[in-house]
Amino acid sequence: MSILELKNTTKTFGDTIAAHEVSFHIEKGEIFGFIGPNGAGKSTTIRMIIGALTPDSGEIFVDDQPISKDPHYKNKLTYVPGDVNLWGNLTGDEVINFFMKTRGYTNTDRKDELIEKFRLDPKKKCKAYSKGNRQKVALISAFLSNADLLIFDEPTTGLDPLMERSFHEEVIRAKNEGKSILLSSHILSEVEKLADRIAIIRDGQIIETGQLADLRHITRIEYVVQAKGDLETLKSLPFVHEFTQDHDSTHILVDNDKAPEFLEALHPLQPMQLETRPPRLEDIFMRYYEDRSDQS
Amino acid sequence: MKQFFGIVLRDVRFRILMWIIGISALTLIVPPAFANLYGEAADREVLKETLANPAMVAMVGPVPEGTYTIAVMFSHEMLVFMAIVHGLFGVMIANAVSRKMEDQGLLEYVSSTGITRSNIFGTQLLIGILMNIALGAVIFTGLVVMDIESFGLEGSMLYALGTALFGLLFYMVTLVLAQLLPSSDWSFGIALSLLLLFYLGRAITDVVNTDYSVIFPYHWLSRIEPFGVNDFVWLSPFLIIAVFAWLAWFLFAKRDLDDAYITLDFKNKTRRIGSYPRLQLTGMKVLITSWLAGMLLIGLSYGSIFGELDTFINENQFLAQAMESESGMDPILQFLSTLMMVTAVVGIIPALMVSARILREEKSERLEMLVSADISRGRMLLTHGIFGVVTGALGLVLAVIGMYAASIGVEDIGVTIGEYMLTALNYTAAVVLFTGLSMLLIGISKKLHTLIWVYYLYSFFVNYLGLIIGLDDAWRIVTPFHFLAEMPAEEMDWIAWAAITAIGIALGIAGAALFKQRDIG
Q1: In terms of domains, do B421 and B383 share one?
Q2: Transmembrane helix: present as a keyword of the record (chain B) (predicted)?
Q3: Fewest CB atoms less than 10 Å from the CB: which of B26, B78, B433, B434?
Q4: What's the topology of domain A2-215?
Q5: Out of A159-163, B8-12, B262-266, which region has the weakest mean confidence (pLDDT)?
Q6: What ipTM describes this predicted complex?
Q7: Are the Cβ atoms of A85 and B366 closer than 8 angstroms?
Q8: Domain coordinates in residue numbering, chain A
Q9: pLDDT for the residue numbered B266
Q10: What is the span of the domain harbouring residue B327?
Q11: In sequence order, what DSSP letters do the residues of B97-155 get, joined into one string?
């Protein structure tokens, strides 16, 4: 059963196509990663889901109901924007209370727990908050809600690593309570840690959807190697892609699913130091383009 | 300094240009119009007589002695009023390049790149001086080039210089306030209040005794009497600008960025804000209360000159009889109705500001959060519309209460408190219409909303000019004031009232319906 489904939703602003026939769905109890570079159409898509924008064509379903037919579908979701702006003259506490009151939830113990966990000073006026603190206010309000679908747009950009971890814990807790999460980000590693499935968007179009494990074929791992033997011999192998040398080490991009073959080939060259770097979003895009130009 | 000046100027130059074009256009369309309408000296003398009544003196200042040439007429009727606009120009730009930049963290940021406090202040000072010189130059050149009879070089120079200095004075006052107060909202609010309070203060003292008026900068302009006496001496009080400039610098150099000399930190306990209307009411508390206080003050100041009106009419029995035989109405009621209409036009402003507050939610992207929390957009806009109308109506009620209270000792005004209230109700129709139109424009697009201010300015000017130069009533046909009864002199016209109110409500509802549909953000 899917909590959210987008079918060919398109949105244009003048000449720019911000979202072109975007389709994906999110199962109940699933964390769904939505990744793409800045300006790829993530926020446009999310703003169509929350009803701020009306799609030019296509349909969005929440709980299998088209949202155009269900005026109150929004009480099933909660949303945290990427750049949270709050009412400068209200305190953090007042903002959280406002959202609790308007959405009708009352668990103040849980509120205190979250405020403690995110180390927010709730008595300060919002205009005195940093970006990260404003984000905390919105995140706390979202985690307090009993909505079935939590939507986060670039949620960790203003948070320090410690708070990022608290955020990840809360996302997992929400998932364990049976909620679904849409997590948009331009940082692959963050999504990788949490998401069950991902969709990759670029220039307004979804280019890949699926479980991250299934997408391994399109990712590459970067190996940074120092060896006694001549690494140049690896260059000709079919699964080795980029081969660059800086002063004392060699950077090699290798298809993710060909790691055993690569290590086997590397072994005779007596590696002294071996470091791997996780796949980056840019690499996925590079790979995607290569694949596409191969086909054409 | 050069680089900083360059970047700040680039940031505000469009706004400055718009203000300069707007103000000089407003100023320069008047002399040819006057030359057209009042080419005959005899006509001007008649007009001069009617402008000597206290209601008009309160609005435009005391009537100058000597021949009432076209140029004298122009400077008399325009100077004090245009000074408000020049002052507003100064306040807006000064606030934008000082406290607002500081609030946005820009001053802190540029400070870190080695730009010193004196560079920053020097830039702020220079922009204020240059923009007012530019405006003065345009007006001076315009007046000279048009070469209309009686517009001498000296007078044109004094008119341009006087208004430019007035603008610079409020620019500097705002810079001082920017150091004293903790945010740009505060410095703007207080500067604007001073600008308007001085105008009202001058209105009272001009009627009662012009000797007291000298404490108000508006009166310095009246005293210059450009094109008449051309009294250069009255430029000298503007030397106080230098004091304010020094004070602003002194205060700026001595404080930390983001700090203020007057901190207004109310340590409130957590308020219970559980609905959108409550949320907005909390946010607009200062805006609404200060406007209501302002409306009461307008009422009190107009009410306080009714006594003078009475004396004036008793002393000018001939004029009074002439007016009465022409219109068949008690002249004092006529003046009262005139002031009432001016009050009503001003009373629309808070209603428009309150109704447009929803755009602030949209621009800051908070509206999306509210929408995602299942708060209905249509209801949000209706909330603003209702608050706008209530604020506007309350303002009118307070204004008439002020008038009534301040004129309670004047015997010849036979207007009861009930009639005053009915007058307030009458003009509430205009408030509803303007608010409804504002909502309709918000419903269509956030950019289009600026049109409501264009329409408002149009209505303001045709009514204002209609009063002082007897502009043809045809100009007012697209404003509600053409249709509404001019109370309390005329009888309440319930049909016009109901029709205008109904149109306003319909526009508002249509706006809310459209707002539900349109893309936001």
Answers
A1: yes
A2: yes
A3: B26
A4: Rossmann fold (3.40.50)
A5: B262-266
A6: 0.79
A7: yes
A8: 2-215, 220-278
A9: 63
A10: 275-521
A11: HTHHHHHTTHHHHHHHTT--HHHHHHHHHHHHHHHHHHHHHHHHHHHHHHT-TT--HHH
